[in-house]
Amino acid sequence: MALADRINSLSRRLPTWPVYILVAAWVAWLFWLGLSGQLGPEPINTLERKYGLFALQLLVAGLAVTPLRTWTGVNLIRFRRAIGVSAFFVVLAHFSVWALLDVQRLGAIWADIVKRPYVTVGFLSFLLLIPLAMTSNTWSVRRLGPRWRQLHKLTYPALLLGGLHFWWLTKGWQWEPLLYLGGIVALLSLRIRLGARRRPTRARTV
Q1: Could you tell me if 60 and 184 are in contact, meaning their C-beta atoms sit under 8 angstroms apart?
Q2: Residues in domain Ferric oxidoreductase (predicted)?
Q3: pLDDT per position as a tens digit, 127-152
């Protein structure tokens, strides 16, 4: 049996709920490290950045599921919803630490959103993810029908804005945010190409 077949066989036997548990446990563990003074001299800033990076990693992982299936045969589609919802949970934690623990005042929060470009794009990414999280359930899929798939293409601009947010807030030309941004652009290009390739096939079968 090929490696991809073995992975697929194993993934079919695994439930998706551990994804939520593991992500929530990691978020809680990082928060505990901050409370106990184990995140360095600036625990709020460190916690904020760790949450943000983890959220970006989860969003990239969710976007990579379809190209991974296409190019390697590894099918993790059934985990994509859990990854996406967990990513939003971590984004919400990232935003909450920034708003409630770092900035703290409503006026200052709005001022940051308006005046700082990296905050602006990060906030826009957060807003785009809200309807996706709210409709990541079976009832919404059935209720919206084909519109559900169109709505969830908001993942693309949300992830791109998230990558820009990470790159913009980093001082200087550091390789890590550029690597993430380049990977996001590459994955988005693959997804768009795969979508364009499937549309003519569907048109011929109608």
Answers
A1: yes
A2: 53-162
A3: 999 999 999 989 998 998 989 989 98
